[in-house]
Amino acid sequence: MAADSWHIVLVTPGRKITSELLPIVSAEVPSAQVIELQGYPLDGNLGDIGQTGMICFLDLITNQEAGLQSLMKLVEVTPTIPVVSLVPDSNPQLILQALRLGAKDFLTQPFTNDQFRTVMEKLAQLLPELISEQGRVITVIPAKGGCGASTLAFNLAAQLKRGGSSRTLLADMDPVTGTQAFQMKLKPGFSFLDILNHGASLDADIWRGVVQNYSGMDVLLSPENPVEGAQEMGDSRPILEFSRRLYDHVVADMGNAYGEWALSALRCTDDAFLVTTNELPALQAAQRVMAYYESNGILRQRIHLVINRFNRDVGLTKEMIETALQSDIYQLINSDYEGVQRALLDGKPIQASTSIGKQISMMADRILGHDMEKQKKKAEKSRSSGGLSGLFGLFSRST
After folding, report:
1. Largest alpha-carbon pair distance within the chain?
2. What's the pTM value of the predicted model, to 2 decimals?
3. Measured distance CA(228)–CA(213) in Å, rounded
4. Neighbour count for residue 142 (Cβ, 10 Å)
5. Mean pLDDT score of the chain
6. Residue 123 confidence (pLDDT) above 60
7. Is residue 52 classed exposed, middle or buried when 0-12, 13-18 and 19+ CB atoms within 10 A define those classes?
8. Which stretches within 256-348 are classed as H helix?
9. Does 140 lie in the same domain as 125?
10. Which is nearest to 1 in space by CA: 50, 51, 36, 46?
11. How many domains does the chain have?
């Protein structure tokens, strides 16, 4: 994971602690993104900023009671995010209490660069998964049924594999109407439910027994029969966070835009593609999805808009769509019903030589090119940075 994708979150109700710690963080980890969260998340929910690659620094100085309550909930709700408590000097009782509640380490006031560096070294030893190479999670979401999101997810994963992603996973995360097995003519067997059922015991051997292989990429299928209570499906992040440790790119076909299943996926995703057509009902559905995400703390800028089956003679133009949805279009994909149906009947990806194939290939190249640009920036920073350059060379390994 590139260093510029790291998020260091400073949780404090005021600016005093931030003003003391921020210069140290900036000096020691100049490439990391620093997020200031004013106030205590007493429900343990970090919202849209709860992403992979995060270290949380929690203020127990300004308000000890609220800080400890927040610590307890953070550890319960987001156990994979390490929390470092910020405590006043000469308070061993508070330090011990914070560690017992689940804090991984602590910084004592006044904060120093050496102290910060020591804590980060400890985290690297205690939590090796923080410095392991992690892949990019890509979610594909339909604005409404029939927009072609599943077909796009299948072909995007195939194009990423063809473009150089040596370890690629296509995950059918649709608990009701998953179609990836049908598209690839695979026999349904194990599904993502088997992964969820293993919980904390999940390991690479179990994973290999669940996924199937298709033309060099792995496929995680949806259940053969619709899941009972699918509308109440909970957190999808355990699957996506585990899979990003094994693959360069994970393409998740979410099947539905609503509910905690989709929202939790978006909170850990690197690229989210909302798929619609240029017909008015589909565009209205896309507008509603974007409003729903914003109301749940997911910024509109994080959603990439893909117009599928684009037909200039039917529906709105590119310019009209961007104006109506107040969002740039990431990719236009032309309408080619016969070409898509031919590929579906063959159980193969759309041919790269076709108009649609070329446009999906452009999407894949853009994603792969972004990864290469991040690698280039990481290399430049590692040559020029001091401070924790050795340690954060580990933290900065790119996908």
Report:
1. 73
2. 0.64
3. 27
4. 27
5. 85
6. yes
7. buried
8. 260-268, 280-295, 318-325, 337-346
9. no
10. 51
11. 2
**Pair of tokens at residue 217:** 């990429």
How many whole angstroms separate alpha carbon 221 and alpha carbon 36? 39
Q: In the numeric block, which tokens belong to residue 20? A: 């003391």
94 and 194 share one domain: no
Phi, psi for 35 (deg, rounded to 5): -115, 125
Convert the pLDDT of each residue in 134-159 to its tens digit.
789 999 999 999 999 999 999 999 99
The dihedral region occupied by 218, where left means phi > 0, alpha psi between -120 and 50, and beta the remainder, is: beta
Sheet holding 83-87, edge to edge: 33-38, 7-12, 54-59, 83-87, 105-108
Look-up of token digits 């996973």: 169
Phi/psi-derived region of residue 220, left when phi > 0, alpha when psi is between -120 and 50, beta in every other case:
beta
Phi, psi of 346 (to 5 degrees): -85, -15
Taking the mean position of all CA atoms in its chain, how far away is CA 113? 31
CATH of the domain at 188: 3.40.50.300
Computed on alpha carbons and rounded to an integer, the radius of gyration of the chain in Å comes to: 22
Q: Does 88 fall in a domain?
A: yes
Residues 263 and 304 in one domain: yes
Q: Which residues contact 319 (CB under 8 A, 6 or more apart)?
A: none
pLDDT at 291: 95
The position carrying tokens 């507008």 is 287
Are 47 and 77 in contact by the 8 Å Cβ rule? The answer is: no
Q: How far apart are CA 350 and CA 364, in angstroms?
A: 14
Q: CATH number, domain at 14? A: 3.40.50.2300
Answer whether 149's CB lies under 8 Å from 305's CB. Answer: no
- Please check whether residues 119 and 144 belong to one and the same domain: no
